[in-house]
Design brief:
2 strands; two-stranded parallel ribbon; about 140 residues; mainly alpha; 4 helices
Length: about 140
């Protein structure tokens, strides 16, 4: 690839265009004291900072651009408990017990989202759905 950068975010994501509340957070312009520094203002960084704050652990979330405006903003908003790899593929890298634990943590995460919405409200139209995969061609 040489010096070319991989551009994984292209176009204008619908979520950032229809959002009426375009929050812009203050820039960090001075030294601060914190126990934890979280790099990246996508969904992972936001959730991580939420849990640290909930436990009264001093943390700061740093994002070089705008919070939730890069890869997180262009996702399909589909949350799945599944991992990207099949269980059998995952066990090539970690043992079966840890692979099963990873899947179970995904299920626990969905329950955590339910708890969060019950506490703070459903401002994102979150709902659980069953996802079906239908195939029309016969497998050979």
């Amino acid at each position: 690839m040489g010096n070319a950068k991989l551009q994984y975010v292209q176009g204008r994501p619908i979520f950032t265009n229809i959002n009426e509340h375009k929050n812009q957070y203050p820039y960090l312009t001075k030294n601060i004291d914190t126990d934890v520094c979280i790099i990246g203002g996508g969904i992972t960084g936001a959730i991580t900072s939420y849990y640290f704050s909930k436990e009264n652990i001093s943390c700061v979330l740093l994002e070089k651009r705008r919070i939730a405006h890069l890869s997180t903003s262009v996702t399909t908003s589909l949350l799945q408990y599944e991992l990207d790899d099949n269980l059998s593929d995952l066990t090539e890298y970690i043992d079966l017990e840890d692979a099963i634990r990873a899947y179970n943590l995904g299920l626990i995460a969905l329950d955590e989202i339910d708890k969060f919405i019950k506490e703070y409200g459903n401002n994102c139209d979150y709902k659980k759905e069953i996802l079906y995969c239908i195939q029309q061609k016969k497998m050979k």
